[in-house]
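Lecture notes, continued. The same structure-token format from the folding unit now serves as the input rather than the output. Read the line below as a description of shape only.
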């Protein structure tokens, strides 16, 4: 396990699973329908040894499931588990950021179409008011699992706030930001 997996932080925990080089692209390809090892290796242009290590890590983390599709010789396909499918919105948001801030020449290589049939750009919104969740509209407060340790200095420093402020109270003077 890397140092991120030791931090008491949800982002660090997620990074320890999905942020190794090549891993987001492997997850993207699985989401887009490439499931066989040879197809993944060809599409990504990644070495077979590195792809094997990344897939083994994702299987061990419960993000990808390895299923046999042929008996002689035994061959496997890889599919996203429920946890793997839950990372797709984060990948789509990362894609939208890339489309906005580092678009390849010629424009975005892919466009997204929702099940309603309309093209869209992913936006994170508040489920309560529908407002866009941005660096300017979101703050973080200490949660029930907050603990002092590596990667949690901001939350530990605000130990007196164990619950979010109610709408009737004024917001904290300097809320910690998740960067």
């Amino acid at each position: 396990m890397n140092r991120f997996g030791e931090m008491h932080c949800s982002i660090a925990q997620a990074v320890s699973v999905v942020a190794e080089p090549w891993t987001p692209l492997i997850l993207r390809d699985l989401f887009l329908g490439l499931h066989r090892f040879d197809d993944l290796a060809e599409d990504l242009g990644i070495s077979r040894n590195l792809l094997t290590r990344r897939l083994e890590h994702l299987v061990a983390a419960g993000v990808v499931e390895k299923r046999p599709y042929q008996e002689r010789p035994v061959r496997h396909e890889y599919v996203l588990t429920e946890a793997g499918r839950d990372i797709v919105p984060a990948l789509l948001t990362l894609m939208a950021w890339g489309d906005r801030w580092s678009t390849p020449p010629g424009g975005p290589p892919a466009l997204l179409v929702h099940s309603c049939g309309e093209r869209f750009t992913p936006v994170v919104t508040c489920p309560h008011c529908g407002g866009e969740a941005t660096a300017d509209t979101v703050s973080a407060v200490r949660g029930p699992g907050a603990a002092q340790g590596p990667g949690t200095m901001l939350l530990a420093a605000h130990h007196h706030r164990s619950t979010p402020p109610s709408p009737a109270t004024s917001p904290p003077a300097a809320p910690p930001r998740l960067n």
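Point for the exam: The first helix runs from residue 10 to 18.
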